[in-house]
Structures are given as C-alpha cells and as structure tokens.
Amino acid sequence: MEGKMTWTVADAVDYYGFPADRSKTGGWVPAALILVVEVCERLSTMGIAVNLVTYLIGTMHLPSSTSANIVTDFLGTSFLLCLLGGFLADSFLGRYKTIAIFAAIEALGTGALAISTKLRQLRPPTCGATATDCKQANGFQMGILYVSLYLIAIGTGGLKSSVSGFGTDQFDEKDEKEKAQMAYFFNRYKKSMGSPIVHIFQVIVAATRKRNMDLHFNAGSLYEDTPENSRIDHTNQFCFLDKASIVAEGDFEKSAAGAAPNLWKLCSVTRVEEVKMMIRLLPIWATTIIFWTSYAQMITFSVEQASTMERSLGNFQIPAGSLTVFFVVAIMITLAVNDRLIMPLWKKWKGKPGFTNLQRIAIGLVMSTCGMAAAALCERKRLSVAKATGDSTAATLPISVFFLIPQFFLVGSGEAFIYTGQLDFFIIGSPKGMKTMSTGLFLTTLSLGFFVSSFLVSIVKRLTGSKDGEGWLADDINHGRLDCFYGLLAVLGSINFVVYLVCAACWYRPTKTKSADLHEMGISTSTSTAVNGSSIEENC
C-alpha cells in the first residue's frame, strides 16, 4: 500500500475525483486526442471567420464596412468570452468539464450555421442585373445568423482559455521525468484553488480598509501563512497593496478549528504579490492590442480586396478566403528560419538560447506595422488599376491577387512571434493559481483588437463617409480609399510600439518565487528583491 501511494499526485485527481495514479492515467493517446480537439476548433472557427465577410457581402448583400464589423465583433466576442471560460474553469467546473461543455455548445452553433446557409428562407434572393436589384437580408434572417455565430463564440471562449492550461496541468512539477514529458492530458486533473477574481478583490478590499495605516514596517513583519516552498518574495512596486498584509486588531476570527484570518481584512504577502504580478502584466497587455487590430484587416478588408482581383490558376479559381493560407505558410517559414538560422546566430552572438518573450512581442509589433504599410501600398496599386479600367464596378480587376502576399506574410510572421511571446509572457508572469485567468487575459488582447477594429471602422466611416456610401470605407471598395485606412493603422502601430518600449523598460518587473527557478525561463530577477532590513515605505 505504501509503495502504491507513491504513484499518487497530491494536487491532482482522476475522472472520478480520486487521487490521480500516474501509473494508470495519461499517455500519448489522450495527448493526441486533446490536440485533435484544438485543431478541429481552430479549423472550424477560422474557416468560418475568413469566409464570413464574402458570404455577408455576396449572399446576404450587406455593405462592406458592416460585413467587416460583423466578422470582427464575432471574433472579438469569441476571445472576450475566454475570461468567462477561465473563470468557470478556475472556480467551479475545472478545465476538463469546461472543455467538454463548451465544445458541445460550439458544435451546436456550427450545425445551426450550416443549416442557416443551406435553407433558402434564411437568406435573401440573388441579385438582379443591377446593384439596385439587390435586397439585403431581413431581420429574421440576420437573427438566425447571429444566434448561430454567437453560439460558436460562446463555445470558442470556453475552449480556448482552458486547453493550454489543461495541458500544463498534466505535469507533476515535483517529478523530473514528468517535467520533461507531455504524457498526461485527459486523466489527470488539478484541484481548483478557488476564484482568482475573489482573491484579487480580497487584497484590494483589505488594502483599502487599511489605507490610513503607516507602512513603517519591514517585509518580515508582514503577515505570511503560505508554505515556505510556495512563497513569493516581497517586491517594492505598488506599496499601497502591502497594507493588506499589516496585522491589525480584529483581523482574526475564532472558530472551532482555532483562529483564522478574515481574508477580506488580512492577506498574506504571497497573496498580495500574486495581485501585483497580475497588475504588472497590464501595460504589456494593453500595448499588444493594436497587433490584433491589424490582424483583423487580413480576414476582412484584405479578403474583400482579394475578391476583386484576378485569382485564376489555369482553370482553377482561388477562393478569396483561401488567401489566409499565407498566414500558415508565413508562420511555418518564420518558425523554421528562427529555429535553424536566427537562434543559432543569436546564441553565438549574445550567448542566450533565444529571444525573450518581450523581444518576441516587439518583433511581432514591428512586423504588423510593416504589414499595414505594405497593405496601403498594395491597395493604392489596386485602386489605380480600378481607375484605369474605366469600369471600377467590374467583378474582377486585371491585377493578380498575389500582390497581397506581402501584407499576409508580414502580419503572419508577426503572429508567429507575438502569439508565442504573449502566451509565454502571460503564463510565466502569472501566479500558479491564476494561469487560466492569465491565458484568458492574453486572449482578451485578441478580443479587444477585433473590437478596436470595429470601432475604428465605425469612426472612419462616420468621419469620411457620405450619404451615397462613398468615403475611405465605401460600400464598394473600388470607390473608397482603403489605402488611407491601412496607412492610419500603420501610424497607430508605430505610436503603439514606442509606448510598448517604454512600458517594457520602465514598468514590468519579473517576480522571484521560491518554488521556481526563473533563470531557467530566461528572466532576470535582479529587479525583484525582498526587503528585509529597511522599511517598506523607504524602499517605495
């Protein structure tokens, strides 16, 4: 019995709620299955997203800007709901049940969308000989479409925030063999550590209640009840929050088990430092939103651009939405070149194994800005061809769709850097009990990027548009100035990059924990030191 117990993992349970036995659970088969779940979800959601704008314009007969905003609002909601999924997974359901429930919801929404596109009653009649003969989809038809799309959005939100965290849950950090293998996916489950949102509010409330108290204490006098190997060293940033750890009269409540702290009045140093860790993520979080605003144009206006250009390869007509394949190609090429060429040279030059997560984010921001500049130049060329033909309403302009490759390639390569950089940054920089929430926080940058795109489109449409549908974002892009809109995004991206550099250099400070060696993660801990001899107020 004693030998068998050594196989169990203290903070993990199996499907039935019993302590997980690593000799019977996990393996590469379930690991492959969860990978299949993620791949299917990605193929489904992105397959819908990249073709949705052409469906809305060509079949539902909606204006260009309206169609773009429907797509970005759909994707923005999908990623925003990752916060809900992360909250439910961390606080109530656990990641396994969250994935199962929301996968079923997404399947329901996808099925409803397929039916809505098949039935004639759920889409308007085809257009006549002239543009005035086109009838837009009515309220009922759009209502069914919206219900289908937002069921998919709900399902996506629950899945995305849990899959990555569910993968990291499968490893026992105290077992060296498991740290080196991805062997346990479906049959090991981490116990919920409580709601991270409640923990954050407890620290804020406790600090606010003690806002008039002095901080003439050293770090050793602050309250700490966390086990030694799980403690986080005290840091000097956001000293106001340290007041939550000052022991005062009435902070403890008596019970049958003895005196225990009221967590809305007194929080441990580690709990306070966890909140500080989350706050440190926010400036980097805010300055990565603009990348996804640029990305949104690649699956909306760039797809619409492609639909007006020559897309023939012999007798084969390339679907406009298929241009996003260059995202995948760009990511594969970028990762290969980075792994085989850039990293060896970087290691030889700097003596480091690779770019840090902040450096990868910076590279992604630069590439997306360059992508928007390239998109502006390409659109200027496309508009000149449309003007030269004399019939700018022609279905296909005599210009190759492959002129769009540079903008797709630059933004796609930028995604390869920024996605991995962001995910790594948020997972490493967050407390152990808030990793699903931090993954959801990362995914909200995508959400807000899409919402910012919708906001910019609406503002630009209002400021530059006219009653007859002209302006930068005209109903027919051959009559608009989409190049100016792309140029605006390039300017905003440049400004954002400068702000990012300031935030990365002056605000963010990695935190040193006693249970993990951050040097192995490529993070310097020189700025995160404990205050032992001098008062907190002096160091603040």
TrEMBL record:
Keywords: Membrane, Transmembrane, Transmembrane helix
PROSITE patterns with a match to the protein in the record: PTR2_1 (PS01022)
Protein origin, superkingdom: Eukaryota
Xref: Pfam families: PTR2
Subcellular locations according to the entry: Membrane
Gene Ontology cellular-component terms listed: membrane
Main location group: membrane
Biological process annotations from GO: oligopeptide transport
Single annotated GO MF: transmembrane transporter activity
Transmembrane segments: 70-89, 95-115, 281-298, 318-337, 358-377, 397-419, 440-460, 485-508
Bilayer disposition of the protein: Multi-pass membrane protein
Family: Belongs to the major facilitator superfamily. Proton-dependent oligopeptide transporter (POT/PTR) (TC 2.A.17) family.
Name this protein carries in UniProt: Protein NRT1/ PTR FAMILY 6.2 isoform X2
Originating organism: Juglans regia (English walnut)
